[in-house]
Amino acid sequence: MTTKKILHILPQFQPGGGIERVVMNYFNYLDHDEYHFDVVTHKMESTVYADEITTAGGHVHLFAPVQLGTIQVNARRFSEILDAGHYDIVHCHMANAAFIYLKIAQQKGVPIRILHSHQNHYADTKLHALRNIPLISIGKRYANRRVACSKDSGRFLFGSKSFTVVNNGIDLDTFHFDTNKRIEQRAELGLQKSDLFLGQVGRLVPQKNPLFSIQVFDELLKQQPNARLIFAGDGELRKEAERLTRQLGREEQIQFLGNITDVVGLYNALDALLMPSLYEGISLSMAEAQGTGLPVFAANTIAEESFATSFAVKLNLNDEPETWAETILQTLPKMSKKRDSGITQMRQHGFDVKECAQIMQTIYDS
């Protein structure tokens, strides 16, 4: 049996980000004797995922951030890796870096060059979007396989060209509601049974809009003083989010965990998840949360496929934080208490990671 060698390209590779969790799902559900994973990444503050790859015989290469001054160095190093690795597939999860990596992969004769769209906007800011638009336009020319996490993400990046939708699947054997785990986690966090516990899971970056979550929570506390908010994830906005928390005098009620590995336990402990993202392809955090039957209050800027169950509530991002808070408090008591039905609903909507990995396997074998 011939092993196919796959090189994944990611912006970062550590617990906390959705794209790397998607890649690790493929890694965990594909036969390592048939599919060998290596990774090129531009940020890695934790080696948790890298250790799993290297234990299986793979390599994780840490590159400098993609900037004007690092393009040539990264390109030269990437070229050397391709020469040494003899890869069958380059799977690029960075649309704004494909102009470097997929171009070199084409020049080196890599047979399968995948560009994977994970979002439906160019960038967090107009300045970054102006930079990314021409780079992405150039880079996608070098892909001969097009993959997207949602129809919206695919149409955004590939326009009228054909692409394959592969849901950001989750392990439904892991992401299910567990009453005992809920009790244990809430006890560890010092929560009372009557405490309302909200959270946001993901990177603390402009796209995820964490400052809006803090404003929503501040309004909610005025009516529900026994509430708590927790952030699981890290990023460039953490200091600003902590500063806003202090300004509002909410240090006792808001906690920042940083990147964590046990998100399953957190989802079980929470009463609601906040997702006010400015844009999103398919939100892996939303999928995971819905698998555990956790009510999710999410922005209307997120791809429609993310609203897969009765546990997902769509809110208008143009509404004031006070409106979000009122809706959460009014809606939560009416929502189903049968959290164990989340896993069934997610399976019905095609979010079983085993099925998603099989679709990706078909692309790798094409």
Structural account:
The strands form 2 sheets. The protein has a 7-stranded parallel beta sheet, sandwiched between helices. The protein has a 6-stranded parallel beta sheet with strand order 10-9-8-11-12-13, with helices on both faces. It contains 14 helices and 13 strands. The longest helix is centred in the first third of the chain and has 15 residues, at 71-85. The protein has 2 domains: 4-169 and 351-365, Rossmann fold (3-Layer(aba) Sandwich); 179-348, 3-Layer(aba) Sandwich (Rossmann fold), CATH 3.40.50.2000. It is globular and about 60 Å long. It is an alpha/beta fold. α4 runs parallel beside α5 (126-139), α7 packs across α10 (263-269) and α8 (210-221) crosses α12. It has helices spanning 18-29, 48-55, 71-85, 98-107, 126-139, 151-158, 179-188, 210-221, 238-247, 263-269, 284-291, 321-331, 342-348, 353-365, and strands spanning 4-10, 35-41, 60-62, 89-92, 112-117, 145-148, 164-165, 196-201, 227-232, 254-258, 272-275, 296-299, 312-315.
